[in-house]
Amino acid sequence: GAGVSQTPSNKVTEKGKYVELRCDPISGHTALYWYRQSLGQGPEFLIYFQGTGAADDSGLPNDRFFAVRPEGSVSTLKIQRTERGDSAVYLCASSSLAPQAETQYFGPGTRLLVL
Amino acid sequence: GDSVTQMEGPVTLSEEAFLTINCTYTATGYPSLFWYVQYPGEGLQLLLKATKADDKGSNKGFEATYRKETTSFHLEKGSVQVSDSAVYFCALSDESSGTYKYIFGTGTRLKVLA
Fold it and tell me: Does B32 contact chain A (CB < 8 Å)?
């Protein structure tokens, strides 16, 4: 079946602009995660959705970052007033309910470059 | 808080050599442990996992054993191939908050020479 998909695959923007990154999880997966991976580093947790609600947003670095999942499927990560330090690969992952909940399936990522 | 420490790379081996990539963790609870692999130009793929102490995860000739006494989950393979060249990430699943979010190590790049 289809895996997790993310669009766009690459995004180049200018400092101060607004960007939206989209994630389509595996069909039927209720849990959705966003991570950020900087060059040479492991992914870092940003936010977790269970259904439509953000159950844990403790990883969002500041209030310029926001994410939604209005219908419990597709999610959008939104970054306002982008800064050069936001340049990274943004990864989305999904998982099903327990007992399989601990295995996450990752998308290919969106590479964001802020000039 | 919880954390994962991996050996630094790059690791360069000849084909058919034995591979060990060290991974240790700190956690307040009893996490599940994972190895993910990222091949060049591709996304993260689950390689193997273990959910409790003394469990051994295995896949594609790779193995790792969940060692609670040493808080380790070292990745091993008896005979590496050129196609194993990739970046390997150790991760734990933080279950204490009920979110199962992952905490990753920094990754270890493996290069296998023919």
Answer: yes
